[in-house]
Amino acid sequence: MEFPRYNNFNFLRFFLALGVILVHNGGITGSDKLRFILQFINGDIIVECFFVISGYLITKSYLKKRDGYFYRRGLRLLPAYYACMIFMFVISAFISTYSFEKFILNHDIVKYVLANVFFINFIHPNLPGVFTFNPLSAINGSLWTLKTEIILYVSVPFYIFFFRYIKGYVFFITMIVSLAWLYYFKVVIATPASRTIAMQFVGMAAFFFGGALFSIYASLLKQLPKMTLASIVLYLIFKGTGFSVVVEWAVIVLMVLFFCLCLPLTFIKINNDYSYGMYIYNFPIIQILCSFGMYRTQPYLAFFMSILLTMIMSFFSWHYIEKRFLALKDKSNWN
């Protein structure tokens, strides 16, 4: 089965990113009036859906053109990421409770820059005097998934290499390890801390390479409707049991791909991918609004402003940074 001329990847990514904004409004602002959002939207599932999409598209891209793979991945990920990092650093210098001079000369800045440059922002997520009185003081909590994304990007060539020799066995080994990881940290020792561990690259590998499998075996796409329906039935049967973690994985992988590849939603086609900009800018924008007290005094206005400002930043990020750097792929020697 060939890749359909229509697909809904940008459409789904847009609404998944919008879901992230809603979850952060309900989860990090401390507003009781917005906390109800968390009853309807699960942030973990949103992240898992993103990894299914990445696994499918990244693996398909690698299989189509292996030369310059890391160069192309770098062009997609790094420019917008570092632009966001610089943007927030500049903004932080002016909203910090420290004087500008004291802020710039603070030794914590070096720790912050180094941690974020190398995608280990969890080591030092704060800047001096910034968001000190917010419920969370992290500058950009959205960035925690990017290190996992990079690890999985790097693993694709190795995964395909082993796939050439042991075929489907590499997929089953990956799934056994990853799903066992998810089961242990989500079911056996289910705590807030274990949930964070479950969402690291070992756990997300199940979703990433679940999507990748349909790039490698394109013939499986013919069976997507039947497989999706079967997974939903199994989920309803095993819902509430420990086994539901495994079935939920199958439902998420299959439903994401079914939605993106099997539904002819050409009338809502989105040509531009604003989701990355939405993802990396929403958290700091919410934090800025929170630092001005808007979520205490006017939570609904802050809510809509967070969406509007994030959309504006994602528009500029896509058209003036991401899209321009992606155009360099066509000018490279690997084209």
What does this structure look like?
The longest helix is centred in the last third of the chain and has 28 residues, at 299-326. The chain contains 14 helices and no strands. It has helices at 9-27, 43-64, 69-95, 100-104, 108-117, 144-166, 168-188, 192-198, 201-216, 224-238, 244-262, 275-291, 294-297, 299-326. 70% of the residues lie in helices and 0% in strands. The mean pLDDT is 92. α3 (69-95) packs antiparallel against α14, α9 (201-216) crosses α11 (244-262) and α10 packs antiparallel against α11. The protein starts with 8 loop residues before the first helix and ends in a 9-residue tail after the last helix. It has 335 residues and is an all-alpha fold. It has one domain. It is globular, with a radius of gyration of 21 Å.
Arithmetic mean pLDDT: 92
Cα distance, first to last residue?
Answer: 25 Å
List segments where confidence is low: pLDDT < 50 over at least 5 consecutive residues: none
- The level of helicity is 55-70%
> What share of residues are in beta strands?
under 5%
Helix and strand string, N-terminal first? Answer: HHHHHHHHHHHHHH
Structurally, the number of domains stands at 1
* Rg of Cα set: 21 Å
Q: Structural class of the secondary elements?
A: mainly alpha
Tally the helices: 14
Largest sheet: none
Looking at the structure, what is the overall shape? globular
> How many extended strands?
0
Please supply descriptive tags for the structure shown above.
single chain; 335 residues; mainly alpha; 14 helices; 70% helix; globular; transmembrane; acyltransferase
